[in-house]
Amino acid sequence: MMARRLIPNLGQWSSRIFGVECDKKSAVYFALRVDRQADPRGKELKQLFGDGKAFSFHIHCEDRIQRSKIYELLQDKVSSIPSTDCTIMDMSSFLPNAKQSASKGFLLTYSSDSPLTEKVIEDLQQVEAVSVCSYFQERDGMWWQKHLSQKGGGSEICPRYCITLTEKPEVCPTVLNIINNDVFYSFEEAYKVLVECRDIIPESQAVLNLVDQRLDLTERGKFPVIVIEGLDATGKTTLTESLTQTVNGVLLKSPPESLAPLRKRFDCEPPLIRRAFYALGNYITAGQIARESSKAPVIVDRYWHSTAAYAIATAVRGGLGKLPAGGSEVYRWPEDLLRPSLVLLLTLDPAERQSRLRGRGLAHTREEAELEANNLFRQKVEEAYRRIEDPACVIVDASPSPDKVLQQVLLLIKNKCHL
Ligand SMILES: Nc1ncnc2c1ncn2[C@@H]1O[C@H](COP(=O)(O)OP(=O)(O)O)[C@@H](O)[C@H]1O
Ligand SMILES: Nc1ccn([C@@H]2O[C@H](COP(=O)(O)OP(=O)(O)O)[C@@H](O)[C@H]2O)c(=O)n1
Asked: Where does the Thymidylate kinase-like domain start and stop, copy by copy (predicted)?
């Protein structure tokens, strides 16, 4: 409906919707229109853009590897401004319901003079592929978006457009952003990312070689395959080792040992690249699972639930309420990835987990604020774990002694897998 009203020669902006994630309320969506007409919901726009100045930053670059690198730079730049000076909100620009169309960016608002903020805005206007827009209201009540940097925009983009609020799209941009950027739902999609980064990350070829040598099997053998999931320090290593011994099984993990030397290299890359690396690790492990499960029970320390849950929790900023709702397609298992017989999620009271982390000599120097952020992150990872479907995970209370946890898990395996 809205698209008809939009300027036809907007080029890559044509029919785009802008979605702004507000911290305290649900997202606000707006589009640009050709005719000068004040939006009757001007008050809501004022709430969004504030009383002072408002600027948005988006990336325009065909190459998604470059795009992910520039996004990191953008993120670093805007988060270098003290939060007392401005408000920063996530802002996506996307074509309604079109996968791969979302471009992530930020909306920045501020009211009192802030040389630091102004310097960042100025600097970003010089960055190739970053499109900077300002937002302002005219006396007649109309809101406008004005392009400041022409570099990323191209010559077709005219300098200002009238703004109108739009309805919430069927598929929200967070979901569009996650699919094939943070979580991959097929081998091919993850593989393509590493192929695309070969020029800038030579180690990608080593990963691809290992992946090419994998056993391309998607069926498990006749023995059960038990995956143990959970946050750091919930007792996965302790349990997987004792469980493997008890059932006379084979212990595997994802990422597999063969990728261990390359892990550090990919951990410092943007999510697109980092997550593709972990996704491919699951396919290598899957081949090992298929082979070993024809001979003995297989215990796996982390698998696809970890890859997806951490990726989703990191991609979604803000609180638990910002996670895609249960049943969303982001939680579906990749069709071409071997499914385990049972996935167990070890859960632990946050204080107990902290104490176990401390026991391992980590985390006792963390700042209070970081702990708070981690607490939110922990909740999101756990919730994402719980929302993943087919197979969904079975929750295990990991607070009793190691032996009690083992007994509890053996009972579950006996009941669910008849081992
Ligand atoms: N059931 C348990 N009760 C008490 N401490 C435990 C239990 N399981 C593990 N631990 C301890 O907690 C710490 C983290 O366990 P670990 O198995 O390394 O977790 P993960 O592999 O999930 O990071 C270790 O110091 C371990 O000895
Ligand atoms: N199958 C897996 C395993 C780990 N990971 C990533 O690796 C990190 C956790 O791995 P880790 O080795 O530090 O965790 P522990 O096994 O030490 O608890 C998470 O940030 C995940 O993003 C993944 O994406 N997929």
From this structure: 228-408
